[in-house]
Structure formats: structure tokens, C-alpha cells
Amino acid sequence: MKSISVFTCQTFCLDFLPVFSIALTDKMIMMVDMHKREYRNLLNREEGLEKLAAEEFDRITVSFYRYVRITDVQDFRDQLFVRWEKLGVLGRIYVAEEGINAQCSVPESLWNDFVADVHGTAEFVGIPFKIGVLQDPKSFWKLTIKIRPQIVADGLTIDDYDITNVGTHLDAESFNTAMDDPESIVVDMRNHYESEIGYFDGAWCPPVDTFREQLPMAAEELEDKKDKKVLLYCTGGIRCEKASAYLKDKGFQDVSQLHGGVIAYAHQVREENLDCKFKGSNYVFDERNRENISGEIIANCHQCGDSCDLHTNCINRACNLLFIQCENCKTEMNNTCGKKCKRVASWSEEKQLEYLRKNGKMDQKRFSKSLRAKERLAKKSLWQKLVGVFQ
Fold first, then answer.
1. Per-residue pLDDT at 59 exceeds 90
2. For residue 256, what is the enclosing H or E element?
């Protein structure tokens, strides 16, 4: 670590910035262009993982969110980065005018300092933390704080519905009891690739790629059930805040949500010895990939069909498809989704970059979380069909 002042970096034209100094790593500098300036960690994945592997202390994986009005988002974001970088925080955090959505890991020895910092921020007083069910020090490898139009993209504006008019918050025991009512309708507010590896027994899991698709689909699907008890759940609770408010705005009379999401549910089930009604694993958006909740695997490898709940991205950067792949197929296919991508991945780095330039990065048709992943991998060639006849 070395301490430098932003005023020493004249080559980056930083003399117009507020006066303060900050402890910076060798690879964390101020990035500047004509439109914005912000602190960023410039470590690449390999460097970040190498630095993480050298750590000799434990980390706590945690997530939290809050819908709260933030006025100067850029300044707010920069202040968080400065303070949390000093505390050794790693993670992926989104900040918007409507609030914050954070998933991160904190050095265990500095946990109390981090909690004090978060709760000492006026916008975050009393904000609840959701500790990861599976603790892995490698959940994140660098600190990234991004500014977004929304912390959860729903495709709507702040005037389209009252985001503060949320549903009733239920703990694990109350959620279990509500699910026992045969008239209750349980709705998974996560995307298809999340529910594919785990869900509440009897839940309706919309076949969607994004949350913005899910809101209108849920309202349309349940249009004739506005007088029924609707139970919503998601990973940590943040999507259900918006979903419950949206459904109530559409006239649904009895909307409840699992407070703290599947993460909090798993902790409460274990601590209170409750019946676990969640089947399979909970998908998480970090290096852990998933947290097994029920001790069973309910999903299958998209390539061979064996039992598996591990998502991976095709290493062909022009594809980057997200799909479920077992260890055997991962080895056989060299971390790719198909023969074409396997061939591309075997090329030299220079040839792969040329291929990427010609074919472009993934578009919506090859979006890494698209339902087309499973559909495409499920297709069999004529040769495979002929072989299947004689097996």
C-alpha cells in the first residue's frame, strides 16, 4: 500500500478535484474522461484472485439494500469507494437515485468497522445485513461500485407506481404457514436460470430472462386472482420490494413477501429448526455461484443431463453463454457450450480477439442469461438423433 494525494497526479488533470488524500493500491487510480471521474480498481481477474489467495484472514460475505433517495449519486458513490477500499471491502455494489444494492465480502477483523461505517451513513441507518449461507473468502476479487439508473431495473419510472407501498413482510415461519394455505399463490420473482436450480415447492416460476419482463407477466398471469393471497420471494428481498408494490398498484389485495429472501429464510430454518420448503440451491451473483439450501441437487447439466447445479459461462468471449455444466463436460468441452465455441477457444489469443472483433460481443440473441441457452444446447444434430435410435 502507498498513500498519495490526488493533487500529485497532474498528468491525469485531477487538480480540480476536492482536496483529500486516500490510501491507494498500485492498481487503483482515478479514471477520468470528459464526462465523469471516479475511483476504480484496475486489477484484472487474474491479479485480483492472486491477491485474494495471498490473504491470511477470513472474510464475511454479506448483502444489503435500501430504497432511499440519494441526491448527488456520483459524489455518494465516490465517498463509499474511498471508505470501503480502506476497509479492504471487495464486492459488486450498485448505487442509483433510488438507493443501493450491495453484495460484498469484508475482512472478518474489520467487520465491526464496516458495520459502523454503513450504519453511520445517514441514508443507511439501521439497514439490515444478510450474511451469506455459504461463506467463501473468494466470493469477490475486487471492489466495484457502479452507478445505475435503478438498483433493480424494472423498465418503469418513479411515477408509474408507489414503490413505498410494499407488501407484508413475512419471516420464515410465517412464510411456511402461509404456503400451507391451499389458496395461496407462491411466485418466484427471480429469473429462470435462478429458479432452475432451486425454488419453493409449488411455486410458479416465470420463464423470463429479466426482472423487467417478469413484472407485467406476473400481473397478467394472476389477473383473475387479485383477491387471493400472493406470496413473493427472491434471493435477498430487493426485487420483492418492487414487485409487491407493483402488484398492489395493479389491484392485488393481499400481497406478502419473504423478508430477507431465500438467504434469510435459510438462516432462520436452520437456527429455528423449521421445515425447509425450499428445494435445491439458491443462485448467488458472485464467485460462489450458488448456496445449497436443502442438501439436494434438482437441476441437470445442459450437455449430458447428469445431476448438476453449477452455472458457468462459455469461455468463448463472443458467446459468453451462461449454462449449467458438470465437471466431466467442463473438461471434455474445455469450458465451452458447444463444438464451435470449443474450436474458437482453442485458437491463439490473437486469433480469438480477431474473431471477437468480427463477430462482436454477445447481443440479445446470445445473451448469457437467455432461455436460448438451454434451448440451443438441448437441440440434437441429425447424427445424434440417428445414434439415439440404436441406443
1. yes
2. strand 254-258
Convert the pLDDT of each residue in 271-303 to its tens digit: 999 999 999 999 876 667 688 888 899 999 999
Main-chain phi, psi angles of 229, to 5 degrees: -80, 120
Q: Rounded to an integer, what distance in angstroms lies between the CA atom of residue 348 and that of residue 335?
A: 16
CA dist 298 to 75, 266, 281, 286, Å? Answer: 45, 17, 8, 21
- Topology annotation, domain 2-147: Alpha-Beta Plaits (3.30.70)
CATH superfamily of 168-280: Rhodanese-like domain (3.40.250.10)
- The rounded distance, in Å, linking the Cα atoms of 355 and 365 is 18
Alpha-carbon Rg for the chain, nearest whole angstrom, is 23
Taking CA atoms, 154 is separated from 19, 68, 363, in Å, by 38, 17, 20
Q: pTM, whole model, 2 decimals?
A: 0.73
Domain spans of the chain, in order of start: 2-147, 168-280, 300-389
Q: Would the CATH topology of 2-147 be identical to that of 168-280?
A: no
Asked whether the predicted pLDDT for residue 196 surpasses 70, the reply is yes
Catalytic residue positions? Answer: 234
